[in-house]
Design a protein that fits this description.
Length: 229
């Protein structure tokens, strides 16, 4: 399957999550954002949805492009990312209309059609997004996230849509900073059972084994557990 330019957006999107691994987590919560829980049940259901999509993908001889065995971290990344971008929209006074969200959904569908796959196959294979998070009347949470990203990118680009690599490089640092500020303000914590958050990549990563004799030595040097903003 040919990977279109939109895939780069989705691939980079998973590197936009910033959270703190410190603090306690309420019982039954996979993570907490701004005092609101992402429940373990919600995470479990969405991981099941993603795995079901992967089963369908493989039946059509299409292989996921994300690491196998990290579905829990991949899904939790998205669930937290959506909340971060909702907070970013509030902080940046960005108000997404149904038309803006529907436009992003159409772009996703057009990209899927051009690759001769379903939307469910497109978002699951390329970005480890459970298909139900990319569906609905105006598109799901994924299209809202993309609409917020697009709106802020355009604002940072002088009111023009970001269409070139040069423009992406221009607005990138400011966009990353806005993401970091939003995530930091949420005071997000994660249940160690499901992983931890690495600020060097803004993604959920598996937690190190508690059986390690020296947990500090076992932690990869590149992992950052505090926000850079």
């Amino acid at each position: 399957m040919r990977v279109p330019r939109k895939a780069a957006v989705l691939t980079a999107a998973a590197a936009c999550v910033a959270v703190s691994a410190c603090g306690s987590v309420q019982m039954g919560a996979a993570a907490i954002t701004g005092g609101s829980r992402i429940t373990s049940a919600t995470l479990s259901n969405e991981v099941a949805n993603l795995n079901a999509a992967y089963k369908t993908d493989r039946a059509r001889q299409v292989s996921p492009q994300r690491p196998v065995g990290q579905e829990t971290q991949q899904v939790l990344t998205w669930l937290i990312l959506f909340r971060i971008y909702d907070k970013l929209a509030i902080q940046q006074h960005i108000y997404i209309t149904p038309a803006q969200q529907a436009a992003q959904q159409k772009m996703l569908q057009d990209a899927a059609d051009s690759n001769k796959v379903s939307l469910a196959e497109y978002v699951s294979v390329l970005a480890a997004v459970p298909p139900d998070l990319a569906s609905g009347q105006f598109g799901g949470q994924l299209s809202r996230y993309l609409a917020i990203q697009s709106a802020l990118g355009s604002r940072l680009n002088g009111g023009k849509p970001v269409t070139s690599q040069a423009e992406q490089a221009k607005v990138g640092p400011a966009l990353l900073h806005a993401q970091c500020v939003a995530s930091k303000s949420l005071g997000i914590t994660v249940n160690p059972q499901f992983g931890r958050f690495d600020y060097s990549t803004y993604s959920v990563v598996p937690a190190p084994s508690t059986l390690a004799a020296n947990a500090r030595a076992a932690k990869p040097a590149s992992v950052k557990l505090t926000p850079p903003c």
